[in-house]
Amino acid sequence: MASSSVMRRVSLRNLRAHKLRLFLTVFSIVLGTSFVAGSIVFTSTVSKAFNDIFDSAAPGVAVQITPDSNQSPGVPLSVMDDLNAQKQQLGIDRIVADYSGSVTIANSEGKALQTGGAPSVGTAYLPPDEALSPDTSKILPGGRGPTNAGEVAINTSAAEDAGLEVGSRTQLVVGQGSAAPREVTVVGLLDLPGSTGGYVNVQFDEATARTLFSDGEHAATLDMSAVQGVTPEQLQERVAATLPPDTYDVRTGDQVRQDQKDQVNEFLTIFTTILLAFAAIGLIVGTFIIYNTFSMIVAQRNRELALLRAVGASRPQVSRSVLFEAFVVGVIGGAVGLAIGIGLAALLQAFTAASGLPEAPLQIGVPAVAAALFVGVVVTMVSAWVPAVRAARVPPVEAMRAGMAEGSAPLRTRTLIGLIVGVIALAAIIIGAMGEGVGPAVAVGAGAAGAIAAVILAGPALSRPVVGALGTVIGAPFGRIGRLARTNATRNPRRTAATAFALTLGLMLVAVIGTLGTSFKGTIDDAVDTGMTAEFIVVGSNQMPIPEAVADVVADVDGVGTSLSFGMIQATVDGQGVFGYGAVGGQPADVAVLDMRDGASDQLPADGMFVSERTSQERGWNRGDVVTFTGPTGEEVPVTVAGVYADNEALQPWMVGPEVYDRLVPASAQMSAMIFVAPAAGVSPDELRTNLEDATASYLTVQIQDRTEFKSAVSSQIDQMLATLYAMLGLALLIAVLGIVNTLALSVVERKREIGMLRAVGMLRSQVRRSIYLESVLIAIFGALLGVILGTVIGVALVRTLAKWGLGAPVLPWDLILITLIASAVVGVLAALWPAVRAARTRPLEAIAEA
């Protein structure tokens, strides 16, 4: 016990004596643990905020009836009449029909109010004496509820975003079959619970809402309250008994609210998983830095540890002393990481609150605290375990020799294992790249994991020839200083490989994501350039569909030769949901490349369908087959396959003629995904564009794009997604840079006597700094090369496996690769700035005397 206490005091004294080394090690742990803790606190807080909102959702609703199928047009109003006739027997107090649909309202400048992806819906206004709860629609003082077709009420947050107030006149477009924009006057502002995050709710009088959002025979839902003495569960059971089985979903108000919570929590779970995945990447990189740090600490303390062994300390005591230091550092890093994570969560909440998302007190629970401390301690202990064992095995006499250095063990065994693992990993990647679908993608993923393991094992042996070659080229202009930097970079291959691996992992992921992103954009570009002959594409703003009425307006524009609207179809075939398009207003062959592989004609029959080659193979739909679709009304529509065309991403996956489209999609639900437009003979593109813009100016949701603009719009969406991923990967790269700083700083301490001797024989401070810069650049470029090569190979293989879902040939991100390699050299210089200055300040006599 006494000796253990002595060893602990020695460990604590060692930590206090090396504050800089302690700070760098703790900081690498903090980066990973703070991201984990911040993710848990933030998502728990957001979940709490949404749950609080949904606790107040559906006020007054005891039971709600919805269609059992999402393809249904709604609940027939006849059901409401039947229930009204049985109100007393069933225990119903009130029944309210809900009419709702998507709308777009103009702001004070006459432009569409952007929601940032949040819903923008129109509903029916119910006065307090008709609503299930008096607080359902609370009109703020100074306003009133709408009473005719020209009046609306709008939620206060949307009104503020739009610059609208009571008395404002504006326009709105109803997204489901609106004939034309409507002129409306805002007569009331609504105080709605949960009205956040860009959400827009425009309320009409009930008669208008019924006309706009239903076919006159159905409602989206039926909500009802119970008379006093009847519980929601009792009312649910009674109402369900009066309805046909397997036709409607009857839920209590609590079930409705819980379902809404579950949907949000499902999204939050995915969001949390993504955040934690990137946090895990940061921790993996941090683990190598911590491992590197403790390896160097042990190497620098060989004499100290050997002396302890010589005076009676046992091997277990030596290894436990190193692990005890790791435990202390892990606890400190975890605690600091938790505090910073809470701060990060607070910043994220402030940002999201400014964007309109709901707020709640920060949820600092046991999971966040446990995760930060557990991850910080465990990662650090695991990272320090190998150096601790190695320290205990060093014989005292050998360790006290001046020439003893860490990492002198042979690399043959681990290199051989690494090569075997690498060959197996490469085989898995190649086999996966030869197939398409989930299985091959999993094979590529397994191969990627094996490749990472191979780099870890064989990296030290690989570093010597690669870094040596790089040093010969890059160091040549610097003469002896270049040769010294190359020697220092290859002196300890284990350390060099472990330091470079931080960059390797981060840049490998960057290369994978970059390859996927450029391939996606290349697929879109190819589809537009080779698969589309239309001059213009009419699309909706915010990736929203556009009213079917716009197709009629576009078709009548002067200068239009052909226009083809792609109406959206959701139906079922053999009980499975399918999605396709209705070609309305023209022929696909007039606006796109339609290469028929099996068909007598490229003219789509009004009562037939064309399918792509890929869809034909996947579903077995061949020419002459009859495919029976079931629409949202339950009507079965048999359609004959008139032909199979070569895969064209602009026309995927199948399309039917206008007669089929009208039978499958009710008029009130018909919407266009996009409209292809080709000019008439003799009409210039500029003239046609002007005519199209003038004709659709009043439609708030409509945009006119040429093919270049269309490609750019899609590419910008991909770029936004990639920017988010790159920003999150920045954490791993930041840790990698800190790892290089850490390694070089400790290396300077380790080589203090050597640097002092070089200074004593005439090396200038500037030459010392230059040698450290070059050493850092060599390590950084080595890591970058491995990462880029691995990431590119894995990215290309993944792209090939995704061909089943329409992704085209792999496109390498050459600009990203070049920028990455140049940036790595810059990172190497930046990471070496502080260690190089410290090295240059080494005083020769003091350094030699310390030996």
Automatic annotation (TrEMBL):
The species this protein was found in: Gordonia sesuvii
* Name of protein: FtsX-like permease family protein
Q: How does it sit in the membrane?
A: Multi-pass membrane protein
Recorded family membership: Belongs to the ABC-4 integral membrane protein family.
Question: Could you tell me the keywords of this UniProt record?
Answer: Cell membrane, Membrane, Transmembrane, Transmembrane helix
The record's subcellular locations are: Cell membrane
Query: Domain MacB-like periplasmic core: where?
Result: 23-241, 496-694
Domain (ABC3 transporter permease C-terminal) spans 277-396, 727-842
Q: Does the keyword Plastid apply?
A: no
Could you confirm whether the keyword Metal-binding appears in this record? no
Q: Could you list the residue ranges that cross the membrane?
A: 267-291, 322-348, 368-392, 413-435, 496-516, 725-749, 772-799, 811-834
